[in-house]
Amino acid sequence: MPVRLRIASDTHLSTITPEAVANWRAVVADVAADPPDIVVHTGDLTADGALRPDDLALAADELARIPVPWFAVPGNHDIGDTPLGPGQAGSIVSSGYVGQFRELFGPDHWAVDAGPWRLVGVDALVLGSGLPEEDEQWAWLEDVLDVGTPIAVFLHKPLGPPPGVRERGGWRFVPDDAARRLAALLARHRVRTVVSGHLHEHRAHVRSGVAHLWVPTAWAALPHTMGPAYGERQCGVLDLVLGDDGTVEPMFRQPPGLVDYVLGENLVDPYAA
Predict the structure, then answer these.
(1) Could you tell me where the beta strands, DSSP code E, fall in 122-197?
(2) Beta carbons within 10 angstroms of residue 207's beta carbon
(3) pLDDT of residue 151
(4) pLDDT number for residue 85
(5) Where does the chain show beta strands of DSSP type E?
(6) Which of 166, 263, 181, 271 is nearest to 223 (CA)?
(7) Which of 66, 94, 111, 159 is in Cβ range 3.0-4.6 Å of 144 for a Cys bridge?
(8) Residues 6+ apart with CB under 8 A from 35
(9) Confidence (pLDDT) at 91
(10) Is 268:16 a contact under the CB 8 Å cutoff?
(11) Is the dihedral of CA 186, 191, 196, 202 positive or negative?
């Protein structure tokens, strides 16, 4: 039987973002009305879980509302960002932040078999960090990818820009060296799709026979003044059907009651305060 997934991302849940909580509950109600087999959250569950542990607790309570099995990987707003160099704003990923996430949501990287597929969650923020958790994850990946079934990989940051676009890794994508290493590892196995969030855009493109899917934000789209847009900036979730024959069928979905916010336009940006 095909595996039906609903993918949510970049919910930014917090007491300081009540509109994000309302949008999330619209997502949960839609899941209850039309249940998929599994829900996956591709990170930034919280507005700032690294520095506000209460955000993590609130997000854990909100994800517990999902009436089907669910899995989540962390985003930069949950455990801090990959070290990018001098002048970086915001929290930098640390073992302590990873530990906080694990206490409430379980492993930051995971693998689960669903029908004929293996679903693999990757912590994108430890890639290129030099933390012990990075070496642990690389070794683990070598094992869990070595299967004879088709594989879907989930992580917060995209591996890189779409074909034809030149932009180095950084805050938008997995750091270059780690992205090349991960792409080479995935190419040796039966990876059919790589699913990511972070950019608050939805897009589908193919690289080397692999479908790269960007999940929209369920909270608020970014204004076009915040960097180039490579996909559609619209709030929603992604429906994903993984076929018995290894096919990948994505479809954008906007749950009833979910408001299409844009930061700085019809919603005050809490990070600009």
Answers:
(1) 151-155, 191-196
(2) 14
(3) 98
(4) 58
(5) 3-8, 38-41, 70-72, 110-114, 117-121, 151-155, 191-196, 203-207, 210-214, 220-221, 237-242, 248-253, 261-262
(6) 263
(7) 111
(8) 67, 68
(9) 85
(10) no
(11) positive
**pLDDT reported for residue 225:** 86
What is the reported pLDDT for 169?
56
Give the three-class secondary structure for 176.
Answer: helix
For residues 136 and 152, give the distance between their C-alpha atoms in angstroms, rounded to a whole number. Answer: 20
What per-residue confidence (pLDDT) applies to 164?
A: 79
- Give the amino acid at 269: D
- The pLDDT of residue 171: 80
- The token duo for 233 is 């900036």
Q: Average pLDDT of each block of 10 consecutive residues along the chain (273 residues)?
A: 97 97 98 98 97 96 98 97 68 95 98 97 96 98 95 97 75 92 96 98 94 98 89 97 97 98 94 79
| 191-196 and 237-242 beta bridge pairing | unpaired
Rounded to 10°, the helix 132-144/95-105 angle is 50
What six digits make up the tokens of 124? 């994108």
